[in-house]
Amino acid sequence: MSEQSGTAQQDVGTRRQQTGTVVAVSRDDTHRFSKPVVSSIRLIAGHGIEGDSHAGATTQHRYLIRTDPARANLTQVHLVGSELLAELAAEGFDVSPGQLGENITTAGIDLLGLPLGTRLHLGSDAVVEVTGMRDPCSMIDKFRSGLKKTLKHTDDAGRIVRRAGIMGIVVADGTVASGAELRVELPAGEPLPLGVV
Q1: pLDDT in tens, 137-179
Q2: Which of 5, 19, 20, 57 could staple 112 via S-S, CB 3.0–4.6 A?
Q3: H or E element, residue 14
Q4: Where is this region: Disordered (predicted)?
């Protein structure tokens, strides 16, 4: 329980109809920390984002590909809320969409409060299933010194708090552009908190 966001149990009935917006979309065909913003991205079920270095059925993470190359790719899509970028700006970190390595920057959705297995409907066709939280790594401090401890810290109750966004897999094809509607479909049954993937 120490590594969960703690909000997955909140008013599930209210969030069942929650909608938000796609603020920006990003992709990069090379493994770099930040991803450039593009006009649209094409999501492919079971694969990820066309032309993105993290696309594939098996892991594309540089460390995991060396240690467990057959591992299923649960990190095909990275999403970050624009609300986090605003919080970081207030804390002295100038971060724009795509710069944390996310593919989709959103607005209006508490991404970290979503339970495991939530489906995010993006635009008219694409669907991403949430697999877990991103665990910030040391690369974040190379991008902005001191940012890692802002995105991952221990709270007063001894719980690890992660704020670097969520990960997911593509379960339905579609093209997504900035301005697209984002609709939340919560999973049936008892909500399970997000772990780290």
Answers
A1: 888 999 999 999 999 999 999 999 999 999 999 999 999 999 9
A2: 5
A3: helix 12-15
A4: 1-22
